[in-house]
């Protein structure tokens, strides 16, 4: 039986149970490892976006499936993507190249897509992919606004697609983050009181001149829902200073700066731990302790359009409904650490980042280890690589480890933190109704105007 046929049969059987699956976070992987060796067991992949980050995502996906097509609005990236696919799969296998992602979504032979585009394109492509019957692996941060998260969830619930977000700290990095969450959940630092996330800042670019659009780049389509503007670039650093490709992260028009770039990792882990240790915990207040932008802001919007405009430095105090406080900072050198998460409880502290996990509770594990199944219970099975988890869930139709529902909650925190520093005032958040209380202007920033022809149709 072909993969495509078996997948359709499973979708029919799974549709009635979809609501139940959606309500069971982190319970998803089968104990048996899925087999992806024979052609009929390997899904057919379409890769949308083949820039720098796809260099990790694409090859990971091709360990489990076969790439039939690549797509990028930059023909240079698309050509490099095709070469990489042929190198991995063999030059005798046909790989189609498109500029328009819709060509991939139109193909019945493609089972799933990887979306590795700038942030402002994620939601539109993901929704259209799900409606076209594709499963989705999309890089973080998944959304540009809070409203986009709601739109993706609506489409996900309607289509029963399998959707993995690329927040690899949930699976990889030596499982340090899973261990940290398990330690907090088991009460090893006492009752959790405070969390600090240091997620890094952004340097200033200074004025960036408008220049001719590089050959091969469809700049108008790259902009998508964002307003039409000049292409800007100047030499310097690893990537140069630009409003395109890697540097799009430092413009509010296309992303959310470090708040969403690294917040999608550290705030996600911190919030997961808070929710595991405190059932029903939800963010409630946002206070802008400090923020510095490289351009003056008016009504939450940058007033200069020729330079990076996201916050270079920031400190946001976030309160939860159960009294826990989370600090979101660009750095925490004054507290003795940088880039990582510090958990503080009534009986100790615990620090974790991609390089280490430390604290008395960690040292105590030598004599008093966590329960044998603590990590597997937290993870929902035996931890695997992020892509393998996605591919196994594509077969089982279960919820991946980085599911849209939990990611939406984490990204809501990131987006609200950005809104509070852009407006420079405290916000009160009604998590149940997903509304900012008593602030019409702040509520309006849950969504953004979309350029005609590139609207998201949820």
Automatic annotation (TrEMBL):
Annotated ranges, domain Gfo/Idh/MocA-like oxidoreductase bacterial type C-terminal: 209-455
Source organism superkingdom: Bacteria
Region (Disordered): 438-458
Single annotated GO MF: glucose-fructose oxidoreductase activity
EC number per UniProt: 1.1.99.28
Protein's UniProt keywords contain Oxidoreductase: yes
Protein name as catalogued: Glucose--fructose oxidoreductase
Species of origin: Rubinisphaera italica
């Amino acid at each position: 039986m072909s993969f495509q046929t078996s997948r359709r049969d499973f979708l029919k059987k799974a549709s009635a149970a979809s609501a139940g699956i959606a309500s069971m976070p982190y319970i998803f992987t089968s104990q048996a490892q899925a087999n992806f060796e024979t052609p009929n067991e390997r899904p057919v992949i379409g890769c949308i976006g083949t820039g720098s980050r796809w260099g990790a995502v694409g090859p990971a996906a091709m360990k489990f499936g076969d790439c039939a097509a690549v797509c990028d609005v930059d023909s240079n990236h698309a050509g490099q993507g095709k070469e990489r696919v042929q190198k991995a799969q063999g030059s005798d296998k046909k790989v189609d190249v498109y500029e328009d992602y819709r060509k991939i979504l139109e193909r019945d032979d493609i089972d799933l897509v990887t979306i590795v585009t700038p942030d402002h394109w994620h939601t539109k492509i993901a929704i259209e992919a799900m409606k076209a019957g594709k499963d989705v692996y999309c890089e973080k941060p998944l959304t540009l606004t809070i409203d986009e998260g709601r739109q993706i969830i609506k489409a996900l619930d309607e289509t029963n697609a399998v959707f993995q977000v690329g927040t690899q700290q949930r699976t990889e990095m030596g499982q340090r983050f899973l261990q940290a969450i398990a330690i907090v959940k088991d009460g090893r630092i006492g009752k959790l009181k405070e969390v600090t996330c240091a997620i890094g800042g952004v340097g200033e670019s200074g004025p960036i001149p408008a220049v001719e659009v590089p050959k091969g780049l469809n700049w108008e389509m790259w902009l998508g829902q964002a307003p039409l503007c000049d292409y800007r670039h100047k030499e310097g650093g690893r990537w140069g200073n630009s409003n395109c490709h890697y540097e799009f992260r430092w413009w509010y028009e296309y992303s959310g700066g470090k708040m969403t770039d690294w917040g999608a990792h550290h705030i996600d882990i911190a919030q997961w731990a808070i929710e595991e240790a405190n059932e029903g915990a939800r963010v409630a207040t946002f206070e802008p302790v400090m923020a510095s932008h490289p351009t003056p802001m008016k009504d939450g919007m940058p007033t200069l359009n020729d330079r990076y405009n996201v916050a270079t430095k920031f400190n946001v105090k976030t309160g939860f409904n159960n009294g826990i406080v989370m600090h979101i900072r660009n750095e925490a050198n004054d507290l003795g650490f940088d880039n990582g998460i510090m958990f503080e409880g009534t009986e100790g502290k615990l620090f974790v980042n991609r390089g280490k996990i430390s604290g008395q509770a960690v040292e105590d594990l030598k004599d008093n280890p966590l329960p044998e199944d603590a990590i597997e219970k937290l993870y929902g099975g035996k931890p695997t690589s992020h892509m393998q988890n996605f591919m196994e869930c594509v077969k089982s139709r279960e919820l991946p480890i980085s599911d849209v529902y939990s990611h939406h909650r984490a990204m809501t925190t990131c987006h609200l933190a950005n809104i509070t520093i852009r407006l420079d005032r405290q916000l009160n958040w009604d998590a149940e109704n997903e509304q900012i209380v008593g602030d019409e202007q702040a509520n309006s920033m849950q969504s953004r105007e979309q350029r005609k022809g590139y609207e998201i149709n949820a």
